[in-house]
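User: Predict Reticulocalbin-3's structure from this.
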Amino acid sequence: IVSKIDEDKDGFVTVEELKDWIKFAQKRWIYEDVERQWKGHDLNEDGLISWEEYKNATYGYILDDPDPDDGFNYKQMMVRDERRFKMADKDGDLTATKEEFTAFLHPEEYDYMKDIVVQETMEDIDKNGDGFIDLEEYIGDMNSRDGDADEPEWVKTEREQFVEFRDKNRDGKMDKEETKDWILPSDYDHAEAEARHLVYESDQNK
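Assistant:
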């Protein structure tokens, strides 16, 4: 695999080469995931996936009983999926092309889907339903304390991160824009960060 990453064939893997490989591998995984799911949802094989097709393929077996006794609220999940599907569906015809279906399955990869990623994240973490993420909700999403167990050091660090960096206006909670800066920072390249970390850990002679 090193020979594939080493684009200039000089016998060394640079941060830039590793970053390019990570991005390539990620795109390949997304492509394979979309292809796999496409086959299971394009029921009439017309090269498009309508919301009805997706709904029937995904939720058909529980539509008659949308709240079965297994801990999942399928009705709520379906409403959420429909909202995301409509956001991905650029022309509003309730039918997804392969590109639109990719945006639906992997919204974090598309600029026009970022608002829905933020909205879903806030809904997941905002337990009191006030439309914000406060410190305890932020910590609770990452760490579920067991009784009076001592708080891990990394949790204390995250508390400091919340106060110093996440909550930019210092009102004790994160709004939509602050949440967006947290989960989708515009100045952060995940592939580059991972590449730098891997090269640093692997470079024995630095």
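DSSP finds ten helices and four strands in the chain.
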